[in-house]
Amino acid sequence: MKKFMIITIFIALHLFSGCSVETEEQAESASLPEQQMSQAAVSNKTDTPPAAEESEEHEEHIAFTLEEVEHKFGTRPGSKFLPAVAIDTDEAPEFTFTEDESDTEPLPYYKLTDNSYFFFGNIAEVDENNRGMNGNAGFVVTPDGVVVIDSLGTPKLARRIIATIRSVTDIPIRYLIVTHNHPDHAYGAISFKQIDNVDVIGHKAAIEYINSGRIEHSVAYRRTFIEPDMVEFEAVRPDIIIDVPLYEKYELKLGEYIFDIYNVGPQHSYGDLIVHDRNENILWVSDLVFNNRVTFMEDGHSKLAIQGQEWLLDNFSDVKLMIPGHGSAQTAPFPMVTKTMNYVKRMREFMAKAIDDGVDLMDAVDTAEFEDWKNVRLYGLNQRPNSNFIYREIEAEQFE
Ligand SMILES: [Zn+2]
Q1: How far apart are the CA of 4 and the centre of ligand 1, in A?
Q2: Is there a contact between 165 and 139 (Cβ–Cβ < 8 Å)?
Q3: pTM
Q4: Beta strands at 199-203 and 173-177: parallel, antiparallel or unpaired
Q5: What is the CA(184)–ligand 1 centre distance, in A?
Q6: What CATH number is given to the structural domain containing 119?
Q7: pLDDT tens-place string over residues 10-38
């Protein structure tokens, strides 16, 4: 009976959102010197189903069929396109993998500075072609250890991050910083736990996510497309938990190197972190900001997102580079920050007016079309869920 109810909710949401299934994210969210810019070329080595409504659902085995999760937002089969540069470009990879590729094979990467490396993900929903490579990650090599920022979306991709690191340096990996709990950033973490002396750093809210019914749905969703790549998946509890107040930082020191890890609150997920590499003056902004992609709001708080983006512009306008969780890295004046913020503000204004005018939820969602955003990646996937979420969020704010 319970299963039937879940399916019913599922179908209802599916119809409502106007796409074939709730997506993965729903399952859970100063310029460089010329010379360095030119180094940013490709190396030659080269988010879901609905949340469980009740905690007893944990016990139940959850699985989906491919038909249930089918969507139009994956990566073109066989495509191997990588942009020539990964900074200040509107291009994005269309890069696929096959199931039989070895996990000891390095991934394509971009070298952004002497010691900062970047994995440029597809801007897409997980499917069997991109095999979960639908977000960005990277690592910084310091003399006292390698610091990895995000683990990509499967244990297998994370093993390939490790293989990539091993191909560029013998320095031990010391830390994995998981910026937030969404699959495309967090689901490779277990592969780092399997290495000696690596500490995983995460937001306090990661524990809440791991204890929620949502993770099981999210993992089941991802397995539907890429089961073999998810073998060995386990949710990872951080070894170092970031529990500082909003916009305050935890200082991670490795010898002379300092990484400031800021808590930017539950703006896009259960809890989000950004990382300032002070030595390089590079800011890994994760999903506080999106480049060439429509944001996803449903796990977060739109007011906090706007506040966080303003805080970013007020405090970090002098960084050499911002590296987002989706899309290319960017130099000042960081138009992606303003663009993401303006989208969220516009959606809030649209929905506040709809509510004021007595427009019901369904009609408001149907009419929330942003013509100038229609060609931005994942508009078709995220616009309706964002509309739906923000309408309900603003309604709820009226009772605060
Ligand atoms: Zn993401």
Answers
A1: 31
A2: yes
A3: 0.87
A4: parallel
A5: 6
A6: 3.60.15.10
A7: 333 333 333 334 566 665 433 333 333 33
